[in-house]
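Title: Prediction job returns without error message
Component: structure pipeline
Severity: low
Priority: P3
Assignee: unassigned

Description:
Job completed but the reporter wants confirmation the result is attached to the right record. Sequence as submitted:
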Amino acid sequence: MTVVVPRHGEAGPNSAQCAELLGEGLAPSGDLDWRHGRADPEDPANPNLGDDGAQGMRVKQGTRLYIRTILGEMAKRGGRDAEIAAELRTALKEGKLQYVLVKAKDPVGSSYAGAMLEHLKVQ
């Protein structure tokens, strides 16, 4: 999920202080997981230039290399996914990407119990 949000009470989405928001959803019993990394070249037309992706590595959700892996997969799909990946890559490079973990709370009976939001520091 990507949403443009104002930072720290700024006036709105046209503000220079806006950030991109990347959300990760988990079930109540879910934890941040690992996956196989993927290269994420900044310029897909020149895949060997500027790649600081994680090809061949294991990456954990919530980390910079995980985000770059997701961006690499989005870029490979092309179309609108590649456009969004480029926007998120720029926001990540500029320190304007906010990564939020959204974890559902355990329900009491069959009632919705809400969710917990946690802002993760991207390193």
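Comment from assignee: result matches the submitted record. The helical segments are 64-77, 79-93.
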